[in-house]
């Protein structure tokens, strides 16, 4: 059984920054499509950012220019740098690993991000 582990969550004021990290020793992230997802309070779960094995990156429109997704192949980690955080960015963030060919996927338990003044 594989479970991704997220770290780096916390509470910031609007305009603040956080870096989330995800890791799992059982799998190599480079061989998966990796992504960050979130469940905001009062909103549906959404994909925040995805990075494929071929290094193709997509972002949710509302985070584009503020968030950066990065896979560190040396550390086997997936990071999400979040800048200029706003209240609507708050929620539980999840790291996911997906292998489209086989349908296999793995998830973290989620980490809380709070943005309030």
Task: Give the mean pLDDT.
Answer: 96
- The H/E string reads EEEEEEEEEEE
Number of helices: 0
Structural class: mainly beta
Largest sheet: 7 strands, mixed
Tell the overall outline.
globular
Question: How far is it from the N-terminal to the C-terminal residue, by CA?
Answer: 39 Å
C-alpha-based Rg, rounded: 14 Å
Please bin the fraction of helical residues.
Answer: under 10%
Low-confidence stretches: none
Count the E strands: 11
Our estimate of the beta-strand percent is: over 45%
Written account of the structure:
- The protein is mainly β.
- 0% of the residues lie in helices and 50% in strands.
- It is built from no helices and 11 strands.
- It has strands at residues 5-7, 10-12, 18-23, 33-39, 46-51, 57-59, 67-72, 77-82, 91-99, 104-107, 111-115.
- The strands form 2 sheets. Strands 2, 4, 5, 6, 9, 10 and 11 form a 7-stranded mixed beta sheet that branches. It has a 4-stranded antiparallel beta sheet with strand order 1-3-8-7, with no helix packed on it.
- Strand 9 (91-99) and strand 10 (104-107) form a beta hairpin.
- The N and C termini lie far apart (39 Å).
- The model has no long low-confidence stretch (mean pLDDT 96).
In short:
This protein is mainly beta.
């Amino acid at each position: 059984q594989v479970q991704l582990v997220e770290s780096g969550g916390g509470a910031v004021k609007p305009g603040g920054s956080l870096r989330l990290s995800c890791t799992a020793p059982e799998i190599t992230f480079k061989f998966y499509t990796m992504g960050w997802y979130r469940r905001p309070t009062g909103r549906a779960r959404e994909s925040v950012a995805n990075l494929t094995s071929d290094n193709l990156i997509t972002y949710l429109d509302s985070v584009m220019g503020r968030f950066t997704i990065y896979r560190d192949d040396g550390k086997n980690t997936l990071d999400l740098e979040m800048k200029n955080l706003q209240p609507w960015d708050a929620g539980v963030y999840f790291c996911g690993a997906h292998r489209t060919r086989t349908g296999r996927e793995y998830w973290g338990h989620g980490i809380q991000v709070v943005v309030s003044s």
